[in-house]
Design brief:
Largest sheet: none
Shape: elongated
Number of helices: 3
Order of helices and strands: HHH
Radius of gyration: 20 Å
Structural class: mainly alpha
Distance between the termini: 50 Å
Length: 72
């Protein structure tokens, strides 16, 4: 049975390999549609746990003067 615990490291290995999914799949004996499915699941999981998923965006303001600006 394929689980995220087993497949996510394989996806990470594929990402690091720089290979096309079809080439990596063939080389490692994994059906391409299975790898594609887990790549999609992996990417979705990364979006959810991404630090930017908090709803806040860093705001950097640069002014040519020396006045201080405070945002609340």
């Amino acid at each position: 049975m394929r689980t995220a615990e087993k497949m996510f490291p394989i996806v990470e290995d594929w990402l690091a390999s720089g290979q096309l999914q079809k080439d990596y799949s063939h080389e490692h004996g994994i059906p391409k549609h299975i790898l594609s499915y887990w790549v999609c699941r992996y990417r979705r999981s990364q979006e959810v746990t991404d630090e930017n998923a908090t709803g806040f965006t860093e705001l950097i303001i640069v002014f040519p003067s020396s006045k201080n600006l405070e945002l609340l």
